Amino acid sequence: MKATATFADRAQAAQLLATELLQYRDRNPLVLAIPRGAVPMAQIIAARLGGELDIVLVHKLGAPLNSEYAIGSIDETGWVYLSPFAEAAEIASAHLEHEQRQQLAALQKKRALFRPFKPPADPAGRVVIVVDDGLATGATMVAALHAVRARQPATLICAVPVASIESLDIIRPLADDVVCLLASANFNAVGQFYRDFPQVSDDAVIQILAAGNGAG
Description:
The protein is α/β, with parallel strands linked by helices and 216 residues long. It has 2 domains: 2-58 and 124-210, Rossmann fold; 60-113, Ybab, Chain: A (2-Layer Sandwich). The chain has 7 helices and 8 strands. It has helices at residues 10-20, 39-49, 84-89, 93-114, 139-149, 165-171, 202-210, and strands at 30-33, 52-55, 58-63, 66-75, 80-82, 127-131, 155-164, 177-184. Helix 1 packs parallel to helix 2.
């Protein structure tokens, strides 16, 4: 893993992404992180761009017998995206219904945990940058972009340090701009591109969000 790593850690990747996004500085961008890994990255980007930090809550739908492999995703409204793999594999409807119920309940718990007294920031008419630490299948980013687009931003940007080529093909039509530092055809897991890739805890997310907007 270390031999193929491109980024030292999420902080370095966020600084590099922020440099690529400087055209949006001082336009009060809304920087939305997909929790949890992207939250510390979005904090750095929001601070560099003079923007506002918040989260967009989505969750992958796991495959039968392998919950880590995303066959789709769901947002807080219950909207569901199914990947081409899931459609081709004809995943049993009972499994999909169970996953949808389970992950929608998980999203509701996350909203109560991360933002108990604050409504989501309004993307309407704004430059919105959706950040994740990497795209393997792209499923969660699809749901995130769909959720934000429904609220009518002026400009919608996807920003990631690394992505599989296949996921970028899925994502590009859904955003007005896609900023990706590295597109890889040899993609096994997001963590392979980082030398240091620790889990981001719920407590860390809560503390970052409680600290306020990236612009301070």
